[in-house]
Amino acid sequence: MSSVHNKTDVILIGAGVMSATLGSILKELAPDWTIKVFEKLEGPGEESSNEWNNAGTGHAALCELNYTSEKPDGSIEVGKAIKVNEQFQISRQFWSYLVERRLIRNPQDFIMPIPHMSLVQGDNNVAFLKKRFEALSNNPLFQGMEFSDDPVKLKEWIPLVMEGRTSNEPMAATKIDSGTDVNFGALSRMLFDHLKKRNVEINYKHSVKDIKRASDGSWDVKVHNISSGRTEHHHAKFVFIGGGGGSLPLLQKTGIPESKRIGGFPVSGLFLVCNNPKVIEQHHAKVYGKAKVGAPPMSVPHLDTRYIDKKKSLLFGPFAGFSPKFLKTGSNFDLIGSVKPNNLLTMLAAGMKEMALTKYLIQQVMLSNEKRMVELREFIPSAKSEDWSIVVAGQRVQVIKDTEAGKGTLQFGTEVVSAADGSVAALLGASPGASTAVHVMLEVLERCFPQHMAGWEPKIREMIPSYGISLSKNPELFREIDRTTAQTLGLSGKVPAYN
């Protein structure tokens, strides 16, 4: 059966943190615009944004070593780290705005203060970390960062990691207390509750099957209503595709030139989760190590304190794996179905170039639980197998495209692809993803609604005081924003004693 529905101004595909963020920003900038959301699952934040499907790190480059690289002359490149941190500050400002105006409440349900640490072993890595610390610590965004290679100090910072350690190999760590743990699933649910109150039509159990250009330049979105079995057609002037790993196949259906010669490579993940409260209580930090040779940056090993369902948790991972699905709830034909005549050579070139990654993924898939425990014991020497169990994390689809670096280059990060006329945009890629959602959605607005930006700018500045300003170059403004957002979001006080 088929039915035709009325036109709307905006359609958001996917009920994750990206659509939630874009919808929330648009409702502040253009409150009269009509918005519809389509999500194939039963509720918001169930796929990539779900708290069990990502690391929950408020990615601000405080601890992630892959955002700082060593140049041939031995100096440290910190440009990307500063950029990622500034983008996270934009998210904090917008969340603070929503809390201040009581559009969302109880920020402690989605963001908590957690120290962020980097931990390395071996002379060369210790030297690298010290140079990284020196390069970052003078920047206002990284003020408060500490460095130590003293085992006594490290035992004070990370007792669980240092307990029972017999190796004499040099170790060092950096620590900064302004880090956060973010529950993007809880945030997504809060934002969709807010949007519902603002008369946004949210349709769960609705799977988007096709997106076609209509004769008037708008978009006809074909939707399968899973509950009724009916096919629906919805028309919109603007469509945003925020379906996580499922965005690429939908972008391809639009047929826009910008969707050509782009491929996707799915990477799945597993975490070890601790089920012993005594062990959980001995650790309070997010501790990031260095990625192994051939591993994608998203596979950097880390030992994370998390707050999920108001309960303190401890996770270690991720262990990478391979599945041809683009979503946890996807199809085994997703990968092969995404290969088109226009991206076949791009995909083949990536396959040839990424042999090390392929080898790494095969090794990861073959790991037994005991081998995973061996990797965990590099962080926690005293870890017992009976205290840990496996949780399957979300699917990520890394973008593959032709760049100046060559054909079939694997991209790490988050990328917006939009039509020349700005009528459709899609979000592809992975980390830092959700942490930089507000920055990314502002980029969508700048690309797709340039004619409105001048009129919207005063409201954007009200929501995000640093909009268009480099905080790293304006330390006084940063300190003021950091103080007010920390206060509003409850990050300046003590962590509640959840148990």
UniProtKB/TrEMBL annotation:
Cofactor needs: FAD
InterPro entries: FAD/NAD-bd_sf, MQO
Listed pathway(s): Carbohydrate metabolism; tricarboxylic acid cycle; oxaloacetate from (S)-malate (quinone route): step 1/1
UniProt record, GO biological process: tricarboxylic acid cycle
Catalytic activity: (S)-malate + a quinone = a quinol + oxaloacetate
Keyword Oxidoreductase: yes
Keywords assigned: FAD, Flavoprotein, Oxidoreductase, Tricarboxylic acid cycle
Domain of life: Bacteria
Its EC number(s): 1.1.5.4
Record-level Gene Ontology MF annotations: (S)-2-hydroxyglutarate dehydrogenase activity; L-malate dehydrogenase (quinone) activity
HAMAP family with a match to the protein in the record: MQO (MF_00212)
Family label: Belongs to the MQO family.
Stated name of the protein: Probable malate:quinone oxidoreductase
Gene: mqo
